[in-house]
TrEMBL record:
InterPro entries reported in the protein's UniProt record: Acyl_CoA_acyltransferase, GNAT_dom, N-acetyltransferase
Name recorded for this polypeptide: GNAT family N-acetyltransferase
Annotated N-acetyltransferase domain residues: 10-171
Domain of life the protein comes from: Bacteria
Length: 171
């Protein structure tokens, strides 16, 4: 069973079918997808994403968390770890890839750091290294990654994009 993580302001839990409306709101926001694919997701793509998240937990015992506010239950975003088998150069191999997205109205409140800290604290128990890739123009995500111990190890190639590849090693 996927864990349920809690912080002072957030609940992080596995996705369910009932989360589709909130996830669709998240992934159909052009500000959310600006650096991830560059366009809002369709309902079909969001549904496939939720199923992929469920599959991660079933097959790999890690995955993405739906993050909600403790007080209101409102969807804040998604944070987690995955193995998307990306055709990125250099390859990630079997190293879990950290990722996060958050609705714009929650930016600037420290919630992304709070959520990602909870995910990484949980992951540190079994994952000595995680990686992430971030668009070079995504300054807020690069800043968050640095605060949580990610350092650049390469400029990658992913399709037509050249993301910054970062790693975090638990010592």
């Amino acid at each position: 069973m996927p864990p349920i993580l809690t912080t002072d302001r957030l609940i992080l839990r596995a996705h369910t079918a009932a989360d589709f409306p909130g996830c669709y709101t998240l992934w159909s926001d052009p500000d959310v997808t600006r650096f991830i694919g560059g366009r809002p997701s369709t309902q079909e793509e969001v549904w496939s994403r939720i199923l992929r998240y469920v599959g991660h937990w079933e097959v790999l015992n890690y995955g993405y968390f739906l993050v909600t506010e403790r007080q209101t239950g409102a969807v804040v975003g998604e944070f987690g770890l995955a193995d998307f088998r990306r055709n990125v150069v250099p390859p990630f191999g079997d190293t879990p890839e950290a990722g996060w997205v958050m609705l714009p109205q929650y930016h600037g409140k420290g919630l992304a750091r709070e959520a990602l800290t909870a995910v990484l604290t949980w992951a540190d128990q079994t994952m000595p290294r995680t990686v992430c890739m971030i668009h070079p123009d995504n300054a807020p995500s690069l800043k968050l990654a640095a605060k949580l111990g990610y350092t650049e190890y390469a400029r990658g190639q992913y399709g037509e994009h050249t993301p910054i590849l970062l790693e975090r090693i638990v010592r």
